[in-house]
């Protein structure tokens, strides 16, 4: 926060600050092959993918229709389940068919149990509902006409109530994803209508959200339209410069006001801080930004593609060619979808939106089924790591945050984990969930390697030739995937 640059000055900034950027500072993850380094992904994978599905219009029937196939292992209408780890999102306050905690508007006092609460709790406790899609569809359209101008209609208490209820029910989502126009959204540097991080508004609650355990925030602007994947290794500086020159900076460097007038986003004063933010925007899956209250949060990006992200666009969002390039560059992608919404692949919202409807059952068309199979083949062959959004993000976060010391002698290398250190989340012990699938690379000639946690307990690591990092072995814990509860469903 500090430097006031004009829109034109901001648009020129990437060209000035990122000229000659080295690969090492570009967001690429390159383990140091001479010693012990955290691997790019759990063993044996070379790239990562998560599906971030917004719950809009997604009934329980629709949810089970496609998740039973994608996540489960039993036989379904689409064929045998693919066994992938794909999570989903929910609301706190809802009035329709999306799983939610409380039925009705946040300003209704009844707080009656919401739709599909039983399933929400069961799947949520097991880790499948890892994303809160903001607090609900808090459109002012649902506010009674006589209360439209009431500033207390949306309040911090409504947020606190939802968090308490989640706590009571044992739900611990760590991913916060904004929902179209909801005042309960977080705005960050692009904030205008978003109130959850606006300390001047009665709905302010970012402090409560963080305290509850939300770690990763998707803000409206954090959408990639034509760059598939983050933390990409462009191979050499020429390819990196070419990608930088092609990157479309415009929407990242401006915010709009209530009249949709563009303003420059606030920039830090120093060139190093400015460069770091630009690299984050360009090529990091997770990057720190300033919230409207001045505190720092971890923002993450989702890949949308050019078309509106509704069910039928999925086969164009994820293709064999895009996955090839992602694996080549050892990157990660979080795909942005609405499998509960079905309609034309519209680039022009005004023309396509009136044709949208709730997804029919079956929710997946044959092209989407083929795309999920393509993803599953790559996961099974050991190239593509597929995990819930929170678990992919936590892996990518941990790879930078993990701290450890290495003692080397001729017979043995000893790795002692000392904790995690993050400029936003702070310094502390690593949690067991953060060490799921922990993997290091070591040079092939390294002697025996042992790994100990903070309390000095040995971790049950295995060692194998690394198929991705040349000349290295991987020393790793087996990734523990979530298990989908397969069971007969009413049809
Ligand atoms: Zn939404």
Structure description:
With 491 residues, this protein is an alpha/beta fold. It contains twelve helices and 26 strands. It has helices spanning 7-17, 60-71, 117-125, 156-169, 206-212, 237-246, 271-283, 314-317, 320-328, 349-352, 366-380, 389-401; strands at residues 37-38, 47-53, 75-76, 79-80, 88-94, 100-103, 129-132, 175-177, 216-218, 223-224, 254-256, 262-264, 286-290, 296-300, 302-303, 332-337, 341-342, 357-358, 384-386, 402-408, 412-422, 426-428, 439-443, 448-452, 462-465, 472-476. A seven-stranded mixed sheet has the order 6-5-7-8-9-14-13. The chain has a four-stranded antiparallel sheet with strand order 1-23-26-25, with no helix packed on it. The radius of gyration is 23 Å and the shape is globular. Residues 54, 56, 133, 179-180 line the site of zinc ion.
Would you spell out the secondary-structure blueprint of this structure?
Blueprint: H1 7-17, E1 37-38, E2 47-53, H2 60-71, E3 75-76, E4 79-80, E5 88-94, E6 100-103, H3 117-125, E7 129-132, H4 156-169, E8 175-177, H5 206-212, E9 216-218, E10 223-224, H6 237-246, E11 254-256, E12 262-264, H7 271-283, E13 286-290, E14 296-300, E15 302-303, H8 314-317, H9 320-328, E16 332-337, E17 341-342, H10 349-352, E18 357-358, H11 366-380, E19 384-386, H12 389-401, E20 402-408, E21 412-422, E22 426-428, E23 439-443, E24 448-452, E25 462-465, E26 472-476
Parallel strand pairs: 2-16, 2-19, 5-6, 5-7, 7-8, 8-9, 9-14, 10-15, 21-24
Antiparallel strand pairs: 1-23, 3-4, 11-12, 13-14, 17-18, 20-21, 21-22, 23-26, 25-26
